[in-house]
Specification:
single chain, 11 helices, 362 residues, 5-stranded mixed beta sheet, 9-stranded mixed beta sheet, 28% helix, alpha/beta, 14 strands
Length: 362
Amino acid sequence: MKFTEFDREMMHRCIELAKKAWGKTAPNPLVGAVIVKDGEIIGEGFHPGVGQPHAEVFALRAAGSRARGATIYVSLEPCNHFGRTPPCAAALVAAGVAKVVVGMVDPNPLVAGGGIATLEQAGIEVIVGVETAACEELNEGFVQRIVHHRPLGILKYAMTLDGKIATDSGHSTWVSGESSRHYVHHLRAGCDAVIIGGNTLRRDNPYLTSHDPGAPNPLRVVMTRKLDVPVEAILWDTSVAPTLVVTKDGAQPDRVACLRDRGVEVLELETLSPQLVMQHLYDRGFLSVLWECGGTLAASAIATGAIQKVLAFIAPKIVGGSSAPSPVGDLSIQSMSAALVLERVSYQQIGTDILVQGYINN
């Protein structure tokens, strides 16, 4: 089916509206809706978060009685089941809209075409597939959660042109440029958690926040087997953002008590692994998890299937060094034919850096 330029424009407006809730909707998806009549937008809305009305409801409220006979564009298939809120498909039928244009079908088995069927049975024209790729990218964390029952794992790192994330001495401030760092701050705001290892904590003492007072901050997670972490660290200030330390059962009880006294959540596991940490974050309802760890933990996360997406910022710098660390540690790959090959690769210039994005098929 051919879509008009106006259809595409309205769907991109839906996506733009949906992003107003960036990082605030987990475990729900980001959704935007636009109602049009006689070529004029008469109502808009987006889903602001769990327990609140869906995008279609806000758009219908804005349009009022003018919604009858109108066309609504929505980035995700309207739901047809009772959850925390009533079904949107029924609300659209009751409002008397004439046409529904859907960006992507909802992968949730509770919906998965059911909303579209409800609308069509009511005599409403339904068109599906306008800017589907953009709508799927908007909600790739939600799709990963629903389809694979795990959050989307995103590995992010910045490296020099010769593949180093720090110098021989361990100095890494800053590998990438300021524009890339702003990009990462926005990325953090859209993720539900960001993970580092104990080495990164000790070396960098990071903030791991969005650096924007108006944007959400992710849960900051530290994975440390021995709990040999500093007594003082920026992450222990939980007035800025929450912090979770995940360690092995029985590791340094005194340090555990000290961290908990400061408001840091401590999770003790019998076995510490990326998969178990991601399972815990899935159980908390998370959609996207950003890994900003060093090479050893990155390799473990990749090898165990905790990573599905890679963002590599390449800076036009050369530092050399025979012992300078690289972004990914030992994966036991002995031949180039066995190398992990990223799929759906894209390239983008950000300031003086090049961002390479791609997906691991696991």
